[in-house]
Amino acid sequence: MLRLAVATQAETFERIREPLADRGIAVEALPTAERVHRLDPADGAFDVGLVHPPRLMEGGAVTARHDLSWVNDRETVLRSRNKAETYARLARADLPIPETRLVSNPVDEAALLGAVEGLDWPVVVKPNSTTRGVGVARAEDPDSFLGLTDYLGLVHDYRATGDRSFLVQEFLPDARDYRAMVLDGAYAGAVERRLPETALSAGRWKHNVHRGATATGVDLDPGLRRLAEAAADALDAALVGVDLLVSDGRAVVNETNARPTVDAATKYEPGFYDDLAALVRRTAD
């Protein structure tokens, strides 16, 4: 039986274990964070990995120790994690994205105000590398925007890399939020993420599941399916979640996730696990 190393969310591990076991692939955990690692060659316990671990340094060491190939390797994960690079790649592929500017701090107040020039208020400010909506904020006017960027200047001190960059982005009001899964270049299913009405009425607007939204399986429009597939192709990602926003008849690729949580099988197209197993086997070969 092929042995698949999984260093991703517990939900994904539990959901894929039985379906892949039925297809001759043993799903086994490969924890990488918050532990001590040996660096001598491992005993060949794994044949292939699913997605590269989120901590790139530890992941690189574990990859070398186990001599692993990943369905989504470190470069794929890094491309998707770098939101500015993702947007630039999508735009280069002529795919619709929210109007976005990358701010490489430190910059002066004139440059900051220039970053919002041409955008309507409110605007979204988000770290260049974040998940689950962490650190994403909305500025309603120039004063609140400058106050927010002042705060970022105080706390964004990444000493290891010197990276203090963040994004300034147009806000799409009342957007419907979809997460489409693309597997091996083909649309594999989608969910709509939505906050409860009470939360929306209270002014909340981030539809992240980890912020209390629910994810409901949907039959995505063919045009949105093609958009998700094109985004995956632009990022050269074999297994990727593509976040789509639809507002006032306009659809954009908002973000991508090369370490996506695998949802319940009922939310995916028939044959999802057959295709995933085939992709894992091809990567192992």
What would you say this structure looks like, in words?
- The protein has 285 residues and is of the alpha+beta class.
- It has 3 domains: 77 residues, Rossmann fold; 72 residues, Dna Ligase, domain 1 (2-Layer Sandwich), CATH 3.30.1490.20; 99 residues, D-amino Acid Aminotransferase, Chain A, domain 1, CATH 3.30.470.20.
- Helices cover 33% and strands 25% of the residues.
- It contains 9 helices and 13 strands.
- The strands form 3 sheets. Strands 11-10-9-12-13 form a 5-stranded antiparallel sheet. A 4-stranded parallel sheet has the order 2-1-3-4, with helices on both faces. Strands 5-8-6-7 form a 4-stranded antiparallel sheet.
- A hairpin with a 2-residue loop joins strand 12 and strand 13.
- The longest helix has 14 residues.
- The two termini are 14 Å apart.
- The model has no long low-confidence stretch (mean pLDDT 91).
Question: Short description, anyone?
Answer:
With 285 residues, the chain is an alpha+beta fold. It is built from 9 helices and 13 strands. The mean pLDDT is 91.
